[in-house]
Structure to design on (245 residues):
């Protein structure tokens, strides 16, 4: 029986298309890998699509690369909705001497950062009310310089104070995919952060870093340096309730 020439032609065409797809897939995979290595910051999926085109199999490419690097010294991880190479967790202790140690935050800065993370958007006066002490002139500056907090907007209240929120760099620093991954009350109790007996009505807010302004916020329309100068001029070192040095 003679082979059908139409069938052979169709099979050849399918094979060519498959070979072309495989070649493009491998090329796209190399591009994604190169972009990740070259970038100084985590990359969003839209940034890959800009180089690959909208029809690239980006999910498959990232999943395959993540699997490729899983057993290696660096892993491909997703943080804050973006992708980046990070040192494998089990090797971190071996590289302590190879990395620059960050400046240790003061207790006041840590408390302020935690309040902003859980209560955002929050004003300086609200931070002081929660902590029970005035915010010193340098505390918010340190957190701003670390790029862990940002100015969001202005509260629709007398004086129109600026509101603060966390940044993507904050999520990346603490290995969070989203702000909702912050530990809740039960987790903090289990970790021993609440040793004493809490009031019956004590509760913790559900953290949210939604980018859109809330109903009680107006957009920032002034120069950033003017806003920072205004915040510094309003900050004091006087305690509302004296705390131990």
């Amino acid at each position: 029986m003679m082979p059908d020439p139409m069938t052979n032609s169709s099979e050849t065409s399918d094979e060519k298309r498959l070979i072309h797809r495989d070649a493009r897939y491998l090329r796209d995979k190399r591009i994604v890998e190169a972009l990740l290595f070259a970038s100084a910051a985590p990359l969003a999926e839209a940034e890959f699509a800009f180089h690959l085109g909208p029809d690239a199999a980006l999910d498959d490419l990232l999943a395959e690369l993540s699997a490729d690097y899983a057993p290696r010294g660096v892993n491909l991880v997703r943080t804050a909705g973006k992708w980046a190479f990070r040192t494998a967790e089990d090797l971190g202790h071996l590289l302590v001497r190879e990395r620059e140690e960050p400046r240790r935050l003061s207790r006041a800065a840590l408390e302020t950062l935690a309040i902003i993370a859980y209560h955002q958007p929050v004003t300086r006066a609200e931070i002081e009310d929660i902590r029970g002490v005035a915010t010193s002139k340098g505390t918010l500056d340190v957190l701003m310089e670390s790029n862990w907090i940002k100015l969001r907007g202005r509260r629709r209240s007398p004086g129109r104070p600026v509101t603060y929120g966390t940044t993507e760099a904050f999520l990346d620093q603490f290995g969070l995919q989203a702000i909702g991954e912050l530990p809740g009350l039960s987790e903090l109790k289990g970790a021993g952060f609440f040793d004493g007996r809490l009031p019956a009505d004590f509760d913790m807010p559900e953290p949210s870093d939604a980018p859109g302004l809330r109903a009680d916020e107006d957009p920032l329309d002034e120069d950033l340096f003017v806003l920072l100068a205004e915040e510094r001029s309003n900050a004091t070192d006087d305690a509302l309730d004296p705390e131990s040095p």
